[in-house]
């Protein structure tokens, strides 16, 4: 069968988390860079489809193509390592320490950000004919996304901060299910289908993904968005990263690990 049962793929999750901790910094950085770049290009694709068709749901339905590509290529997103690497720590794998986990998160964050930022500059050139014209319609939409999802939250103060945090939690609940989805099948088609469903859901619902935002907000600033770098960090990236961490680890990683790998003793009716 091409489907791998939960007890088996959860072991694969822990093994994957351990292997990422031991990965050379160079390799981790390259894989994170490419993941950030591909996901950023996928975000451009989704916005372009939405603008051209006037149908945001169609853009959301096609956005997962980038996620599928990057995971099939073995690249890494911060949202994925938030889920996998702590499981290796909790499983007490040899040599896996909290310091090593945090260091790996830092490397992946830097790589994802640099990859997303590269695409932001490249697409800004495309949207403005080398900065010689105002942004195209798609570029203009992206600049407004940056404003709406920073200043739009800031307008509501603590309520806005809570909202963005919860959207980050819900986002990586779904995204991490996509990461796990790549492990539950031995066929490419099975992996793609399993990844596609939760990723489409998160994008269609407007949840907040820290790596997608690493592209959207720098891109919006380059294209003339009316908000500051501090607005982006305080009213988007930082609370979203925290929400992504808590959502993915608690709602996906810990639940699967606890019930499928550390299964409680079966009930006795004797």
TrEMBL record:
Instruction: Reply yes or no: does the keyword Lipoprotein apply.
Output: no
- InterPro entries cross-referenced by the UniProt entry: Aquaporin-like (IPR023271), For/NO2_transpt (IPR000292)
Under the cellular component aspect of Gene Ontology, which terms does the record hold? plasma membrane
Regions crossing the membrane: 28-51, 57-84, 105-131, 164-184, 196-218, 238-257
Q: Which GO terms describe its molecular function?
A: formate transmembrane transporter activity
**Cited Pfam families:** Form_Nir_trans (PF01226)
What is the membrane topology here? Multi-pass membrane protein
Q: Does the keyword Transmembrane apply?
A: yes
Keyword terms, alphabetized:
Membrane, Transmembrane, Transmembrane helix
Q: Where in the cell is it found?
A: Membrane
- Family that this chain belongs to: Belongs to the FNT transporter (TC 1.A.16) family.
Checking PANTHER family in the record gives: FORMATE TRANSPORTER-RELATED, FORMATE_NITRATE FAMILY TRANSPORTER (EUROFUNG)
Protein name (database record):
Putative formate transporter 1
Q: What is the lineage of its organism?
A: Bacteria, Pseudomonadati, Pseudomonadota, Betaproteobacteria, Burkholderiales
């Amino acid at each position: 069968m091409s489907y791998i049962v939960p007890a088996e793929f959860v072991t694969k999750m822990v093994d994957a988390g351990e292997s990422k901790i031991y990965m050379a910094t160079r390799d981790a950085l390259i894989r994170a860079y490419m993941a950030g770049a591909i996901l950023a290009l996928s975000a451009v694709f989704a916005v372009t489809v939405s603008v051209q068709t006037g149908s945001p749901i169609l853009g959301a339905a096609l956005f997962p193509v980038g996620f599928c590509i990057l995971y099939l290529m073995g690249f890494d997103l911060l949202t994925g390592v938030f889920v996998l690497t702590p499981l290796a720590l909790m499983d007490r794998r040899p040599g896996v320490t909290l310091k090593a986990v945090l260091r790996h998160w830092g490397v992946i964050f830097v790589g994802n950000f640099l990859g997303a930022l590269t695409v932001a500059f490249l697409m800004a050139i495309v949207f403005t004919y080398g900065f010689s014209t105002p942004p195209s319609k798609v570029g203009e939409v992206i600049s407004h996304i940056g404003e709406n999802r920073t200043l739009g939250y800031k307008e509501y103060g603590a309520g806005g901060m809570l909202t963005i945090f919860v959207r980050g939690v819900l986002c990586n609940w779904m995204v991490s299910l996509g990461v796990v989805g790549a492990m539950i099948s031995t066929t490419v088609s099975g992996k793609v289908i399993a990844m596609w469903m939760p990723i489409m859901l998160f994008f269609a619902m407007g949840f907040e993904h820290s790596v997608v935002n690493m592209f959207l907000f720098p891109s919006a600033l380059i294209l003339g968005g009316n908000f500051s770098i501090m607005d982006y960090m305080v009213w988007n990236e930082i609370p979203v990263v925290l929400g992504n961490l808590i959502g993915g680890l608690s709602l996906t990683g810990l639940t699967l690990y606890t019930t499928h790998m550390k299964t409680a003793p079966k009930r006795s009716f004797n």
